[in-house]
Amino acid sequence: MIEYKTIYETALILNPDLDLEKSLPSADSPRSLKSKTDAWYLSTMSRRIFRAGLKHSMVDAKWPDFEKAYHNFDLLRVSMMSDEDIDSLMTNRRLIRHWRKIQAVRYNASIMIEQVEEKGSFGGYLADWPVVNTVGLWQDLKKHYKQMGGNSAPYFLRMAGRDTFILTSDVIRALNRWGAYQGIPSSIKSRHQVQEAFNTLAEQSGRPLCQLSRILALSVNE
Fold first, then answer.
1. Tens digits of residue pLDDT in 28-48
2. Per residue in 32-90, pLDDT tens?
3. Which of 33, 112, 190, 209 could bond to 127 as cystine, CB 3.0-4.6 Å?
4. What is the torsional sign of CA 150, 188, 179, 200?
5. How many CB atoms lie within 10 A of CB 185?
6. CA angle centred on 189, ends 185 and 190, rounded to 5°
7. Is residue 39 in a domain?
8. Are 71 and 19 part of one and the same domain?
9. pTM (predicted TM-score)
10. Which residue stretches of the chain are H helix?
11. Same domain for 65 and 18?
């Protein structure tokens, strides 16, 4: 794989009108991740789930109604919602009435409660997971939570402030261009290979994964 310096310099050349450093995302510290409430994480996860395949601004505009419908995403109250409560949400025109996603929120609240009991907080679960195995965190979220497949887990992590890279089409093209991986990394094994490439770039640059992801995306022509 080409070294980080070459990738960064190429991103600068291809984007002469962009202040690259100011465009880079940032990740929260472990302390910051642990300071957020479990209800906030359930709300953020649920918002990511409903955003999938829809215009984000439309989902965000409706989110105050979701907060009200799901008791401000209090984990215990959501987990105890009855089948009748869930059914009633499908008649609420202020919500996005997607049956599987509506159901997933209650299920995910129950799973989150289990992790909170184990780790002390959901933020603790995210903060304590090794960054060098972030794809393992993707898999763990997909395994335990509903509607967290595809790119939903990494996008949720990005929304939550937890460091991650995201396999967008531009990032994949960059990985191919710079010899980090050939093809589309869709299997667990291939994603771990990509993780190793990101770990190498992180060691070379001292940058978080989210910034490396952005720099890679900018290092290929549109």
1. 999 999 999 999 999 999 999
2. 999 999 999 999 999 999 999 999 999 999 999 999 999 999 999 999 999 999 999 99
3. 33
4. positive
5. 22
6. 20
7. yes
8. no
9. 0.95
10. 4-14, 20-23, 30-35, 38-51, 56-69, 75-79, 83-89, 99-119, 122-128, 134-144, 152-160, 169-177, 188-205, 209-217
11. no
